[in-house]
Structure prediction request, 350 residues.
Amino acid sequence: MSASKTLLSLTFEALHRSGVAEALRPWSQGLGVIFCMHSVQPDSSAADGFAPNAGLTSTPEFLDAALTMLRHAGYEFLSLDDALVRINEGRGTSPFAVFTLDDGYRDNLIHALPVFERHACPFTVYVTPGFVEASTEMWWLALERIIASATGRIEAGAVAADLDGSVARKWAAWNVLAPVVQEMPEHDQRQWIRGIAARFGFDLAALCREQIMSWNEVRKLAAHPLATIGAHTLNHFAVSRLPEEEARREIVLSGKSLERELGKAVHHFAYPYGNVAHAGARDFRLCAEAGYASAVTTRMGTVYAEHGKHLLALPRVMVSSKYAQTRWLKVLASGVPGRMNNLGRKLNVG
Ligand SMILES: [Zn+2]
Prediction:
C-alpha cells in the first residue's frame, strides 16, 4: 500500500470511527452527491502487482455493496436530469446519489449495467467518440501496458527510465514517466505515446477496441431506460490546455457526434481529467454556450442548492478501488472531505 493510500485510509477510517462525518453530515451533506467511476470489472490485477491505473477500476461486487449501503443510508438514486430538477428546486426530503462513469468502457455495459438494474439505479456514461472510433489514444493505459512488457530505455522530456522486466523497475518507470507525460501539452503527449507505441510494436487502436464500446454497444446502452449518455470531448483532451477555438470544437462536436450516432439529444458533458488544472472558468462558459444542461468536474465535493447557478461546474466524488471500504463512501457522501478539500467552502467553481 502506498504512503498516500495509507494516509487516505487512515483519514477515512478516523472520520468514520470518530463519528465526525456523521455529526457534521447535516452541515456538510447538501442536496446529494454525484459519484464518478470509470471501469467496472472483476479483479484482474497483474500477477506481479504492477497495476498503476487500478484506481480507475471498481469491481461489480464493490458497486453492488456501495449501492446497498447507500440505499440503507437513505440515499435516493436519481438520473442526472432528475438531480438537476432537485438542484433547481434547492431542496429534497432525502439526499440523492447520481452515478456517472467516464470514457465509455465496454465493461460498463457488461458488468456495471446488471448491478445498476438490480438496484434500479439510473446512471450516466460519458463517451469520448475518438475512443469509440479508435482514432485517439488512451495514453495512460497504453503506457502501463508498454511498461509492463518492455525492456530497455524510455525517455520523456528530460526524464528516462530503464526497464529490465523487474516489477521494481516497472513501478519506478511509471512514477518517473507518467507525471511528465500527463503534464505535456495535449498534442505533444499524443505524439509521444504514438512514438513509443510504434517503437515497442504496441497497437493503440486495438487497445481502444478492446476497452471501449463500439457505436452499436453505445446505442444499446443509450436505449436502456436507466442509462443516459453524455459527452466527454472528441479526443479526451484537458480542455483548459487547448486554445479557445479548439476547446470549443472538442466540447461542441463531441455532443454532436453522439447525437448523430444515437439519434437522440445529448445534454450532459464531463471534462476529461476534470480537476482545476484541466477545466476552468473559460471552459464552463464554453459548455454553457454549447447549450449543455450540466457539466461535471472531478473537483471533490457534494452538491448544494448554490450549485443551481453553476450547473456547468458540478463537483463529483471519485469512486474506485482506492475506497475499498463502502463505509468510506458514506464518509465521502457526507460532504466532510469535500468541505475539507475546499477549505470549508460549499462552492469551488472558479
Ligand atoms: Zn475520462
About this structure: Residues 212 and 296 are 21 Å apart (CA to CA). The radius of gyration is 20 Å.
